[in-house]
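>> received
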Amino acid sequence: MFSWLHIAMPPAPALFAQLLVGLINGSFYALLSLGLAIIFGLLNIINFAHGAQYMMGAFCAWFLLDWWGIGYWPALVIAPFAVGAVGIAIERLLLRRLAGLDHLYGLLLTFGLALVIEGLFRQRYGSSGLPYTIPAELIGGKNLGFMFLPVYRGWVVVFSLTVCLATWFVIERTRLGALLRAATENATLVQAFGIDVPRLVTLTYGAGVALAALAGVLAAPIYQVSPLMGANIIIVVFAVVVIGGMGSILGAIVSGFALGLIEGLTKVFYPEASNTIIFVIMALVLLVKPAGLFGRAA
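>> returned
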């Protein structure tokens, strides 16, 4: 009767391999949800175009390599700045006109932008993935005894965690972060001290978009470059943000990595639930703590 509860323990290499996959997915969840949390927490914009901007980062890296022969390492810097500049243009030309309106207007606008961007790329490049080579320095792997660790995947986890913690430090522990938080609470008062709040808002949106583009560059050698790569991940990332707490920087980081690991473990012990486990957790969190695990009630 209860035989379905008896789950055989998988071999250690298979278990650690799935944990690594979970950590890699969690790295992308954390980077993307961090960008979303910054944009929502500091600007009150629900940026549904975040997945398209993630895809643009991957395509920007591919363009740099295919058109100009510029490799992975420069792309890690150039692509976030280029896509972040596009984000700045979007904020100044479109989103600024919705300032003060209900969140739904920003969500609908960015959702429409996502459809337009993805449609344009799909029309030009189709739906199949374009290969992007791993840099020579990160090819190969290390035998750790209990598992084989591909060097590039280990790099993605360490680099993503470093970027996430550095972003948290800037927002929570520096004067710039204090200005951003103050501008969110009382923009008029901050402007009275001579701070250009509209410019601060624009640069903050650009920084959130740049984080999405950075995740796209990191993902390109693993998942290939495809117009649909953002659409396939953005719903999961929104669930991660809701679980961590809308606008919570720490919640985005912790929830991103933790949920990636949970997803990886689910693939080992109950593969049928691996595609839904994050949404089940989201539903439970919303029932118990609607503001999210690290969020504050309005």
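>> Confidence is low (pLDDT under 50) at residues 1-6.
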